[in-house]
Design goal:
The complex is a heterotrimer of chains A (about 230), B (about 300) and C (about 350). Helix content of chain A is about 40%, strand content about 25%. Chain A is an alpha/beta fold. Chain A has a domain at about 5-85 and about 155-230: 3-Layer(aba) Sandwich (Rossmann fold). In chain A, a hairpin with a 2-residue loop joins strand 9 (about 205-210) and strand 10 (about 210-215). Chain C has one domain (about 5-350): ABC transporter involved in vitamin B12 uptake, BtuC (Orthogonal Bundle). The chains are: A alpha/beta (about 230), B mainly alpha (about 300), C mainly alpha (about 350). Chains in contact: A-B, B-C.
Chain lengths: ~230, ~300, ~350
């Protein structure tokens, strides 16, 4: 049984339906990526999964039906969502951002903070700086660290490469890969940068105008010429 | 020289009341992005509640604490029901609703207590004619000192709440990025309601202190204080609690100086206009106030 | 559901019917009702004018203003000063008040250029509170008579108008004020309608919906905002003149001269329907009706309201108004007129003329 099971997910904004029945799975310890062009509905999928927008269909997490669950409760259940555009708290300091991440879990967060400062030394240097004054890459790392403060089983990451220089993007992906491989963190990733994503993910879903048009292992998708030409720019 | 200190002390005490109410405005604005037009009226009706408890025999200090609890409940209740409901439909609607609240609470207070002779709210502090301290030659009445002390203590507590507590962190997070706050598992609804609740409680205290100084209690009690508080929040910056306090004290002291040193031009009657002009000038030059942050608006 | 083509015979029949109904009411009231009832209609007219003026700025341009009571007061005081101290004939004071208020309105608009939302509300709040304070200022007492106010502002002789014949005494005066008010309402309505349906009106709505986009599309924000504030202020002043002539007196605490006046205008506009032409008119009627119905609640049992509020010693009018406002914001954000339009559309739909047909405008 998968960790995350999504069936017939339909969602939209107001009268406009954007997702027309999506099926996807994320198994424990897997890194799955959703690829697709702009407007395909990738971010909408993420927001629908984490309950930020109204949805119909079924979303199961760890065997529990969370279709009707409020977004705020998901952190407690083990899902952490890093939204598109970082989603840091710009007026709070770096360290306060991390503390917020630990809000839902009352465990000793001081140790966690130290740990993430080890993983992201640049954040440690800026611990008392306002998050809004950090560079894009640093904010992305901060957002991921914040999400991880809650010890999630599943990390939802929406376009982490957006607006980041290639070198920084690589760093970010390396961290994600490391966490996935060494700690068994399950990751559902949304990306436009197909090349990079295919290198780190195990399985791929291809989204186009609200429906899944292809899915398979990263190797399969990468080697399929027709798909490459049509969606991934060869 | 003693005139200078007289105005200064009086200004500090009165200004601290403006600062308390202004803090309520700022907490609501920072937490929810709204201007609570009914902040003064909420304070006023809670002051009546305090008087009523006291009139029923409950000791004054306890009455005040109960009044603040009522204020909290009133604020939180209003936010959770009316404000949130309208906010979903239209942001401008929230302002209109707070105006409706202004009218409604004012009318309600007049209806429940209005026809009684002007009420006397017993002062918290000794207020006999000879209860004062002479400092630098100026008279500083005990009740004024008391007002300043209570107000400062409460502001201090509020700052501790924001800076040092987990809930305060949650409030700051929701103010900074409400969507991410939800994703981080913060119960945003409770936080929003609490912002208004805190404003209600601060208002209750502000009204009680003011009522104690003014001596007379009626539905129009807090209107001018609300204007002063709005001027303070504007001057200090609507998203800066520290700014609200500094601005409130400044306006308090400033109006005393203006009225005292220019009795012909300004005097007691025109003090309010000085505060109003402050609003104008600040909004013309730096709308975000002295300590507020200018936020870039997304087109 | 009935579908009717725009411009067809049936459409014109509906319009004619509407005009006949209105004309009937308008003639019936002053000839058949008591002078106090007639006076209530005049009160409604005054509110309609003020609400229509506010509607231009708030309903159509999206600029929050709770300062229109100042323009109202400026109108009233201009008229009072001109009539009492300078012997002007009351009729001309309308024009003078409009001009003075227009200038002040343009000046007030200047801070509005750069700020929005609550900050604009605060500026207009300051204007509304500042006006009565200034009127009371000792330094200006030579002009305004301070807190006392100016009284005995009346038409010396009620002019003799052709159709109405001679109007004498209290009855005559009431009927005269009614007709005068009606004329000003119609003028205000036509001005508003003309503006709204013009290019200028479209610029206003563009500003309301998205200022930056409007500017990018070529709307001169400065000129437009300043002008609309000026016009709105001028129209509101007409209401002030009317009110002063009707009651004969104006004081800094007078009706609608204080901040409360601004709030009432806002209420009337919203209950009637912001952003609609008929909203303020409907709102004015509703407000006056509500005000009169709740006036005597404390003293004699008046049905349901008496049962609910009988214990209070003061009139619950304002409380009820506050409740009505909240209900409207939830149930009918576009006011009664908006509600009527929505419901009306279920019964009758006017099908617009297709563009490009020979008779299209």
């Amino acid at each position: 049984m998968s960790l995350l099971e999504v069936r017939a997910l339909t969602a939209g904004y107001g009268p406009v339906e954007v997702l027309h029945g999506i099926d996807l799975d994320v198994d424990e310890g897997e890194m799955v990526v959703i690829l697709g062009a702009n407007g395909a509905g990738k971010t909408t999928t993420m927001r629908a999964v984490s309950g930020m927008i109204g949805r119909s269909g079924v979303v199961n997490f760890g065997g529990v039906d969370i279709t009707r669950t409020n977004a705020e409760k998901l952190v407690g259940m083990g899902i952490a969502h890093v939204p598109q555009g970082r989603g840091t708290f710009p007026d709070l300091t770096v360290i306060d951002n991390l503390r917020v991440g630990a809000y839902a879990r009352s465990s000793d967060h001081k140790r966690d903070i130290d740990r993430w400062f080890d993983v992201f030394p640049r954040l440690a240097e800026r611990r008392d700086q306002r998050a809004g004054s950090l560079s894009g890459g640093e904010q992305q790392m901060l957002a991921i660290a914040r999400a991880l403060m809650s010890h999630p089983k599943l990390l939802l990451c929406d376009e982490p490469s957006l607006g980041l220089a290639p070198l920084i993007t690589q760093e970010v992906f390396e961290v994600l890969k490391k966490l996935n491989v060494e700690e068994g963190l399950s990751v559902l990733l949304v990306e436009q940068n197909a090349n990079l994503a295919l290198k780190v993910a195990q399985r791929v879903y291809l989204l186009e105008t609200g429906t899944v048009v292809a899915s398979g292992t990263a190797a399969q998708i990468a080697s399929d010429d027709a798909i490459r030409k049509a969606y991934l720019g060869a | 020289m003693e005139r200078f200190f007289q105005y200064f002390f009086d200004g500090l005490s009165l200004g601290s009341i403006y600062a308390l109410l202004a803090l309520g405005l700022v907490v609501v604005f920072r937490g929810t992005g709204h201007l609570n037009f009914a902040q003064g009226e909420m304070a006023m009706i809670c002051t009546f509640v305090v008087w009523q408890f006291n009139d029923w025999g409950i000791p004054l200090v306890l009455s005040i604490i109960l009044g603040m609890i009522v204020g909290f409940a009133l604020g939180a209740g209003v936010e959770a029901t009316i404000i949130r409901g309208v906010a979903k439909k239209s942001q401008a609607g929230v302002f209109v609703v707070s105006i409706a609240l202004f009218l409604g609470l004012n009318s309600l207070a007049a209806m429940i207590w209005g026809s009684l002779p002007p009420e006397q709210l017993p002062g918290l502090f000794p207020d006999e004619p000879d209860d004062f301290q002479r400092i630098f030659g100026a008279v500083w009445r005990y009740e004024y000192i008391g007002v300043l002390a209570v107000a400062l203590v409460l502001m201090g507590l509020l700052f501790l709440l924001f800076a040092k507590t987990k809930f305060g962190l949650a409030m700051r997070a929701v103010a900074s990025n409400p969507e991410s706050a939800r994703l981080a598992g913060i119960p945003t609804g409770i936080v929003l309601a609490s912002s208004w609740g805190i404003a209600g409680a601060m208002g209750a205290l502000s009204g009680t202190l003011w009522g104690g100084i003014v001596g007379e209690l009626n539905a129009g009690l807090m209107f001018t204080v609300f204007i002063y508080a709005s001027a303070a929040a504007t001057l200090g910056g609507f998203d800066s609690p520290g700014g609200a306090v500094i601005a409130g004290l400044t306006i308090g002291v400033g109006e005393q100086f203006l009225a005292g040193y220019f009795p012909g031009w300004i005097g007691q009657e025109m003090k309010l206009s000085a505060a109003l002009l402050t609003i104008f000038v600040v909004l013309l030059i730096k709308p975000s106030g002295l300590f507020g942050s200018t936020k870039v608006e997304r087109v | 559901m009935l579908r009717i083509d725009e411009g067809s015979l049936r459409h014109w029949l509906i319009r004619v019917l509407g005009v006949v109904v209105v004309a009937f009411i308008v003639v019936w009231v002053p000839t058949q009702m008591s002078s106090s009832r007639i006076g209530q209609f005049t009160d409604a007219f005054i509110l309609m004018i003020a609400a229509m003026s506010l509607n231009l700025v708030l309903g159509f341009t999206g600029q929050i203003s709770i300062g229109h009571s100042a323009f109202f007061g400026i109108g009233g005081y201009t008229a009072a000063i001109l009539i009492k101290d300078h012997g002007w004939s009351p009729g001309y004071t309308f024009y003078a008040a409009a001009v003075v208020s227009f200038v002040v309105g343009c000046v007030v608009a200047l801070p509005a250029l750069r700020i929005r939302g609550i900050y604009l509300a605060l500026v207009t709040l300051a204007v509304a509170v500042l006006f009565p304070t200034l009127v009371r200022w000792k330094k200006l007492a030579w002009l305004t008579d301070g807190s006392k106010g100016i009284d005995s502002v009346r038409y010396e002789d009620v002019p003799v108008w052709p159709i109405l014949g001679e109007l004498k005494g209290r009855e005559g005066r009431a009927v005269f004020m009614f007709w005068l008010g009606l004329i000003v309402v119609v003028v205000t309505y036509l001005v508003c309608r003309g503006i709204v349906k013009s290019r200028f009106g479209r610029a206003l709505v563009a500003i309301r919906d998205n200022e930056t986009a409007a500017a990018v599309m070529g709307v001169n924000l400065t000129t437009t905002k300043v002008l609309v504030f000026g016009v709105s202020a001028a129209l509101c002043a007409l209401g002030g003149v009317l009110s002063t002539l009707k009651s004969g007196v104006i004081t800094p605490d007078g009706q609608y001269v204080t901040l409360l006046g601004s709030i009432v205008f806002l209420l009337v506009m919203i209950v009637g329907g912001a952003g609609t032409l008929w909203g303020p008119i409907v709102g004015g009627l509703v407000y006056v009706w509500l005000d009169n119905t709740t006036r005597d609640i404390g003293t004699n049992d008046s049905g349901i309201l008496g049962a609910v509020f009988g214990w209070a010693d003061q009139s619950p009018a304002t409380l009820i108004l506050g409740l009505v406002l909240v209900v409207i914001m939830f149930a009918a954000p576009y006011g009664l007129v908006g509600l009527a339009k929505r419901l009306g559309r279920k019964i009758v739909v006017i099908v617009p003329r297709p563009v490009g047909s020979s008779t299209s405008r």
